[in-house]
Amino acid sequence: METTTLIAWLARVGMLPAAAALIIGAVPARADETVDVTLADKGMQSMRVDLSTEQVKAGDVTFNVTNTSRTLAHEFVVARSDKPIGTLPYNEHEKEVEESALEVVNEIEDIEPGKSGTLTVKLEPGSYILLCNKAGHFKLGMVNHIAVTN
Ligand SMILES: [Cu+2]
Hints:
single chain, Cupredoxin, binds copper (II) ion, four-stranded mixed β-sheet, Immunoglobulin-like, five-stranded mixed β-sheet, Copper resistance protein, 2 helices, elongated, metal-binding
């Protein structure tokens, strides 16, 4: 039986709640957002966080993260931040951004060379940064922005 026929029949026989449930079920739910992330480096010369998109809708966002490095493990940190990247508090001794000054949402700790990881987080609208905070990596370019919109 066609769904529309079934709905009409359920409504006719007085099973309106069941009909309503079918109608609601037929409306596609808003797809969750997915971002493909590539962590890349040329050894300790330069490093990048490349994203398949720079803007997503608020809600559940899944990051599919691949470390394309041949030699280095990287991490992937999601943090809320409205500050320009150059103004983030940096610890010269540890060679890392002060994570205590960041609103870290979640992270994938070690992704070995050639490996992948997945992280799903619920994000409110706002500005976020995606970075690797292993010693020296941030300063070598391992950071990017993503905007989360309503
Ligand atoms: Cu790194």
